[in-house]
Write a structure and sequence with these properties.
- The chain is of the alpha/beta class.
- It has one domain: Spore Coat Polysaccharide Biosynthesis Protein SpsA, Chain A, CATH 3.90.550.
- The chain contains seven helices and eight strands; from the N terminus they run βαβαβαββαβαβααβ.
- The strands form two sheets. It has a five-stranded mixed beta sheet, sandwiched between helices.
- Helix 1 runs parallel beside helix 2.
- The chain is globular.
- It starts with a strand and ends with a strand.
- The mean pLDDT is about 85.
């Protein structure tokens, strides 16, 4: 089973968009809990968490520190980190369950990263072209979500709360050989 950790900035619309894509995973029994780690504390995300049946964690600090705090409170052996506003394609449920099962039986720990998809409604200009080129050359970026076993996350040291670009550092610690690019796509919020 899986704990989903979403750091939020007090904005309801982006959080609800991400949660809506997770509902089928909860219904299928893949998701055990969703933790909304709110860095603003304006009451909006607390209300969303109450309505959606999520755990609410108020937190002051960086996004990396919020993700580390969410991981600390997670109850499941697997963690999924998503940014508020990011939306997974419907096929993520089966692939995620298969990935967790395969890696659990493997002697080699690995993490999964979702395949980037640009929004069909966004402006796909020069900036998006450069980002796509960067993803092709440098590999996936931290905003593409991360699926990782909790014990592997802890062995790597997790998100370093005070580090600059802590999410990118965690991906570097994983290395190319310890991460898999999943077929399921994620539409990344701007």
């Amino acid at each position: 089973m899986l704990s989903v950790i979403i750091p939020t900035d007090g904005i309801e619309q982006t959080t609800v968009a991400t949660l809506a894509a997770l509902v089928p995973g909860a219904a299928a029994g893949v998701i055990r809990e969703v933790l909304l780690v709110d860095r603003v504390g304006n009451g909006v995300i607390e209300r969303v968490a109450d309505v959606a049946g999520c755990r609410y964690l108020p937190f002051e600090g960086s996004r990396a520190a919020a993700m580390a705090e969410g991981a600390r409170h997670a109850r499941s052996p697997w963690l999924m980190f998503l940014h508020a506003g990011d939306v997974l394609d419907p096929g993520w449920i089966d692939e995620t369950a298969q990935f967790m099962q395969t890696i659990s039986l493997s002697p080699r720990p690995r993490a999964g990263i979702f395949r980037y998809a640009s929004s069909p409604y966004g402006e796909n200009g020069l900036r998006d072209a450069f980002q796509s080129l960067g993803r092709a050359i440098l590999g996936p970026s931290a905003d593409q979500g991360l699926l990782i076993a909790k014990d592997h996350y802890e062995r790597l040291g997790g998100h370093t709360p005070d580090a600059r670009r802590a999410e990118a550092q965690l991906l570097r610690k994983l290395g190319r050989s310890s991460r898999a690019l999943l077929r399921s796509r994620i539409v990344v919020a701007r």
